Amino acid sequence: MKAIRATLPGVLRAADLAAIRNGSRVTIGGSVICRQRPGTAKGFVFISLEDETGVANAVVRPQLFEQCRLVITQEPALLIAGRLQLHDGVIHIQAEEIRALRCDDLPAEASHDFR
Length: 115
Prior knowledge:
By secondary structure, the protein is mainly β. The protein has a single domain (5-102), classed as CATH 2.40.50.140. The chain is 10% helix and 45% strand. A five-stranded mixed β-barrel has the order 2-3-4-6-5. The longest helix has 6 residues, at 62-67.
């Protein structure tokens, strides 16, 4: 991500999120390292993205997952926009928009999916 950061204006690094106010709309991006859809989560999906500074986590509502299913499940890197939520010291993004992050300079990495 560091190699392409200059081409992504407005996309925050994982390390930047701690300084952002709860409820602010943000965009994060990175390589997908984990996709989870626990049976006990009522259809919610959890995505972890890694960038050059660490890991950022996003929560995807069931309706958005159905709308973006192929992008979420097939793309090795994503851009996720949504509201930052800070709860008990844990930061995650409530996803509102998800799209593929395509760049030849990003290595394709395997993710740990739906376990």
